[in-house]
Description:
The chain is an alpha/beta fold. The chain folds into 2 domains: 2-106, no CATH class; 151-282, 3-Layer(aba) Sandwich (Rossmann fold), CATH 3.40.50.150. 43% of the residues lie in helices and 10% in strands. The protein has helices spanning 2-5, 9-13, 18-37, 41-62, 83-91, 95-106, 109-121, 128-135, 151-161, 206-218, 234-239, and strands spanning 165-166, 178-179, 195-198, 222-228, 244-248, 265-270, 279-282. Strands 2-1-3-4-6-5-7 form a 7-stranded mixed β-sheet, with helices on one face. It is elongated.
Amino acid sequence: MSDLQEYKTAQIAAITDIKEAVHVKNMADAAAVFYKAQDAWAEAQKAQEYRLRAIRAAGTILLPPAQGGQTERIERQHSGDSKYLQTLEDAGISHGTAQTWQKVARVPEDKFESYFAEAEYWMDDFSIAGLLRFSGDWYGKSNVTEWETPQWLFDALDSEFSIELDVCANEHNAKCPRYFTPEQDGLKQDWGSSTCWMNPPYGREIKVWMQKAKEASKAGATVICLVPARPDTEWWWENAIAGEVRFIRGRLKWPESDTAAPFPSAVIVLSPNLGSGKVVWWDVQEKA
């Protein structure tokens, strides 16, 4: 693991030796498996990011010079084999794998970098398949981490809980007359004994927001949280199971998007008046 940590992203991008690129990719594979076993999602994601960057470096090396690579496709006069095939053999890479890695290398730089922000937003694992879907505009094109709550879902919960405070909002998407803006920073505010709505940023920040929600509920607030259903993550086990967990049937469609979210969602109700560990299979849907 420590060997992988010695590399910076710029160093990986600058690799010109195919065997070194494969070595970094293999180290990243091992690190991702290790961290997943420890339920360390953020660390596993970082390892998977390094894996993709190493694959991109290897794919770039394998591209022909005309496409920015360094591997000629000229046949040898005697053996009939090419430098390209010999490079694959020396590095222990199959032809099919090499083709896939070159697809990764051909993804434009801006899209390659944007993919990490997009996948992190959706709490998706970094992967070749995810990157290639993204580069083909499979995903939405949002580069933000805050998306508006579907109004119908909020209305259903508001009718049940009489929500008073939106702790994570702005003037355009606030669901309550009283709300905390990014400048006010809801994490630094006292939520008191209010009944609160929380649709937090879905990147790595989600952990601190869920910690705040749990702490606020212990201090007297009721907090209704809309989050990705990710019981495979550490933040979920540390915070979500302290309240009532409602798994929403199907996948939500966000107001800004014409497609459904690529992950299931859950509503977590954290309250001093509710016991922990209750699970509800919530068949709630938008009314036609």
